[in-house]
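Form 7-S
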Amino acid sequence: MIVSNILADIEQAAPNEVRQLLTGFIREALVDFLELDDIEEVTSNQSFADLGTDSMQATEFKLLLEKQLNCKLKTTVMFDYPTVELLVNFLATKVLEIQENQVAPVTSQNTDQADLLAIVALTGTYPEADNIEALWKNVVSGKQIVFEEAPGANGYGYGKIKPPQSQQVMEFLGLNKKRYNRLNRQEKLAYQVTADVLHNAGFGLKDLTSIVTGLYMGVSDFSDERREYLPIDASLPNKISFQLNLLGPSQVTNAFCSSVYVALHQAVVAIERGECDQALVGGVNTIIEEEFKQLAHHDKWRLFFSKNNCVNSFGANANGFARSEGAGMLLIKPLKQALADKDQVHAVVRGSAVYHGGRGFTINAPNAQGIKKVVWESLKRAKLSADDIDYIEAHGIGNSLADVAEIGAIEDAYASASEKADKTWQISSIKPTIGHPEYAAGMASLIKAVQAIRHQTIPGIAGLTTINPEIPEDSRLILQSQSRVWNTAGQPRRVALCSYAIGGVNAQIILEEYRPDQGTLPKNGQKNIEKLSIDGSSAEKSAGVSTNNTDHITDLVKEVLDLDVQNLDLHQPIMNYGFDSIKVMQLVRRANEKLGTQVKMGQVMRVNSFQEFLALYQPQEVAKPATVADTEQQAET
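Output:
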């Protein structure tokens, strides 16, 4: 066993030498512990899993660290910080609390709005909304869209948009009729929103040659109703950059539902790095009717599509989503430049983040840990507290389990980053208004959020009557059908747009109202978001497990999952043991039958560990389903 005087060495070392000492100590300890041949086998950025460390060894090494550093660590410390570099940073800042220049805590900071990026133009076309004004009108009216059944589509329908205005597009972009007619429908829509947003921003084609303009688009890899596909075909953004002679980055973002948010984040980073002066960000989603009909007869899609051909986000009657088409685009540039150019500033981008949550229950389901992390990261980048956000534009796919998991993760993330026990957040979703336009969904939500800031109104959720009964009655997230006036206590209005996607990519964008007289923003109270961790965010919920039910649950876990609870690391998530949502649903159903409990799958999808799962079976009152009237009254008080 390794013998070290690491604590004594740290006490005598200068603060800027601590990391080097810890790194050397941990590398040597791993070589000895894992019986490796040479210290060079352990690099700073190599994962412990790649070194062959299993869960039992991770627990034992944690005990070694506790003894050598005279501290108490979580059992999951090597999973939470899976490389030497990450572990050293955690130990230095959070355990040993070493104060050094490069280990500064994240605190609220003054931010000058002029240093942010501005949205100076935006456009979009969606079902029953040919422009952004029509879209906003539908949002505030509370109108829920229901699509007509498509002939031969097994009762399903989808939302269609009008054909592009060809003559205007050709004239503005300099496309001849022959060239334009060769474009497929997806390309025509992309050119239309590009022309519209450039026209709205006051740009002509000649103006773009002197400005480095990035182009970032959420779009599927291939969508051509004529099936004219070549393996060497260029991407849609590349084609537009070529045709318009755009100088700068040009790339596709294919993250399905999160595509536009991810594209906007990439554009923000590119401008901040000086890779471009400004950026076009958009999304296009088209549906080929014949393919839609084929999918409608596929058994798989019965799990996703709404038989009612509408979306009931967060409602008790949610039964799937309805697909729709859509296209939109915005233009961002530094606010200082926007003011110098005398542009109209619709909103400023205060912060953004993208994060994949790794393995979850399924590749289609929201990953609670990923959602929490992306919320915290975007708040940290924005230098804001959760209490500075009033309105959250959520995904709201219209699946009862997914909606509950999403709401639970968002509430956990915001509540743990809040300093006000009575703080609440208004939730809305664009999908009941327009359906789910997939790759272009984020653009519709951005238009809605910008319009909400402009009109000083927080939108309700169209069609919401009874809230999903699995959403707790005492939730700090307010869900209601009616829009309300958006009052603030002197601070700019701020909205967070949060999305997850099939495939697991989570993204959040924070928009802020532009205040010409704002200047440097005042400091806001802010928890140190860097201290938040996935495991720590809800530790209070799982402090103990009722012994009344422990034996029964232990037997069921052995029977259904073939796992011995006594030999498990209870701090690890259930899915880390190789079980998907089907197995876990079987376990939940059996446990409810045997124990007479009413634990919901939505609750299970929120938990971070096996321990929290077991804690769900403690005796507790079953909350009655909330009504919209209840939450509207809560919002008024």
